[in-house]
Amino acid sequence: MACPDWIYNNRNVVERLWARLKEWRAVATRYEKTASSFMGILCLAATLDWIKR
């Protein structure tokens, strides 16, 4: 195996989270002009995803 199991498992979790966050149109298309406003919508989407699950 090329990498330890814990690395693969964590990578899988991150990839699945990113796929769920891309369901938000603002995250997928990055409508925000500044990095700070993009980080704000990303945090909001992640928080709502965490609450929903």
From TrEMBL:
Species assigned in the record: Microvirga aerophila
Protein name as catalogued: Transposase DDE domain-containing protein
Domain of life: Bacteria
Residue ranges annotated for the Transposase DDE domain, each copy included: 9-52
